[in-house]
């Protein structure tokens, strides 16, 4: 059984990360199907120690477990002291009780007092396809109340069970006896590093690895306060990586990024913020260099490479005004190279060439013009 801070018990596989993305039941698979899952209070919660709302309880935030009764009729208790992820002053107090050897596989969900858990919480149980019971969705959880879930005891040899929820109001949840805290400890915040591979429309965000982290969450914004995010880059799960290529950006624009570590249980605080300025859309013009390898029918055109260029466009003509191009050598894409062998020429003839840079965004102005005369053969 996998217990997580977002108020779920996953009995088959741990549906993390991104398990906070709650919705009404039945819910589609995340990392795997939500088969055999108890949604006690599914919400974007955290149980880290030391957050502002944790002072609500004398033993602070955490997920606490205990066992009451004696075998073979014990009760296993799991209690959450949680706060909302982005608004730590709001709290949720709830508990799941699992009954050993109960013929109906009974379990109870007991809700204590909650604050600020509004409009987006869900609760119920989901099994294989067609087996689902939803108690509530997109509303606040009940206050100081309990729910009992159980399968009917069927005499048929091939029963089709249907879980039912029965609401029984109680003034206050019964405290679990001598709970043993098993707190979820947040990982350290990553150390963000300067961006690399900066171009007009992309850059690579970098950060240091954090011990115990299983994935990282990336934010990118045009504002240092992160009031508005670049589409697709708010709390983006990038996996267990220490860099991420950010694409679809605007040229000559300052962007800001930050990152958080996730360890399968909790998310760290934000890293510091790094800024990066994308390059201008139009690259600089190349500088043409003198030709080499001249023979009667060919020569090698040369130029200096331009930062950020991904391709070059070559013109070759028989006049310096480039009114008469050599066939096949007008705006010729030659690739990301700084030389090109021009062939099929006439002997003892003067040719002119120029080149432009392309960076995936725009094309530069023309380079200077170089002349070259083929040999007489």
Topology:
Layout: E1 2-4, E2 8-10, E3 37-42, E4 45-46, E5 62-68, E6 75-84, E7 91-99, E8 107-111, E9 121-126, E10 132-139, E11 145-150, E12 164-169, E13 180-181, E14 192-196, E15 203-207, E16 215-221, E17 236-237, E18 243-246, E19 254-262, E20 274-277, E21 288-292, E22 299-303, E23 311-317, E24 332-335, E25 339-342, E26 350-358, E27 370-373
Antiparallel strand pairs: 1-2, 2-3, 3-9, 4-6, 5-6, 5-13, 6-7, 7-8, 8-11, 9-10, 11-12, 14-15, 15-18, 16-17, 16-19, 19-20, 21-22, 22-25, 23-24, 23-26, 26-27
Architecture overview:
The chain has three domains: 2-150, no CATH class; 191-277, Immunoglobulins (Immunoglobulin-like), CATH 2.60.40.10; 287-373, Sandwich (Immunoglobulin-like). Helices cover 0% and strands 39% of the residues. The protein is elongated, with a radius of gyration of 33 Å. The chain is mostly beta strands. The strands form six sheets. Strands 4, 5, 6, 7, 8, 11, 12 and 13 form an eight-stranded antiparallel sheet that branches. A five-stranded antiparallel sheet has the order 1-2-3-9-10, with no helix packed on it.
């Amino acid at each position: 059984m996998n217990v997580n801070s977002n108020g779920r018990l996953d009995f088959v596989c741990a549906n993390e990360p991104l398990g906070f993305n709650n919705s009404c039941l039945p819910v589609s698979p995340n990392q795997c199907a939500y088969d055999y899952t108890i949604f006690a209070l599914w919400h974007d919660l955290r149980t880290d120690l030391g957050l502002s709302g944790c002072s609500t309880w004398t033993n602070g935030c955490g997920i606490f477990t205990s066992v009451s009764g004696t075998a073979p009729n014990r009760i296993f208790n799991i209690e959450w002291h949680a706060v909302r992820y982005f608004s730590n002053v709001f709290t949720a107090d709830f508990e799941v009780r699992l009954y050993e050897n109960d013929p109906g596989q009974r379990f109870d969900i007991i809700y204590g007092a909650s604050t600020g858990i509004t409009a987006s919480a869900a609760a119920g149980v989901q099994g294989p396809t067609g087996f689902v019971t939803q108690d509530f969705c997109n509303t606040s959880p009940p206050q100081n109340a309990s729910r009992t879930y159980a399968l009917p005891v069927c005499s048929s040899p091939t029963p089709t069970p249907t879980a039912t929820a029965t609401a029984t109001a109680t003034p206050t949840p019964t405290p679990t006896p001598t709970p043993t805290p098993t707190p979820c400890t947040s990982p350290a915040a990553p150390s963000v590093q300067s961006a690399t591979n900066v171009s007009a429309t992309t850059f690579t965000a970098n950060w240091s690895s954090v011990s115990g982290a299983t994935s990282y969450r990336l934010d990118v914004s045009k504002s240092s306060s992160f009031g508005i995010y670049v589409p697709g880059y708010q709390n983006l799960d990038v996996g267990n990586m220490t860099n991420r290529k950010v694409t679809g950006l605007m040229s000559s624009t300052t962007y800001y990024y930050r990152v958080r570590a996730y360890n399968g249980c909790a998310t760290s605080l934000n890293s510091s913020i790094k800024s990066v300025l994308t390059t201008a859309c139009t690259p600089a013009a190349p500088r043409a260099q003198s030709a080499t390898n001249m023979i009667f029918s060919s020569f090698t055109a040369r130029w200096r490479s331009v930062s950020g260029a991904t391709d070059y466009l070559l013109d070759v003509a028989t006049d310096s005004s480039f009114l008469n191009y050599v066939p096949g050598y007008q705006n010729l894409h030659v690739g990301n190279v700084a030389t090109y062998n021009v062939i099929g020429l006439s002997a003892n003839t003067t040719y002119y060439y120029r080149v432009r840079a392309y960076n995936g965004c725009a094309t530069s102005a023309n380079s200077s013009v170089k002349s070259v005369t083929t040999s007489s053969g």
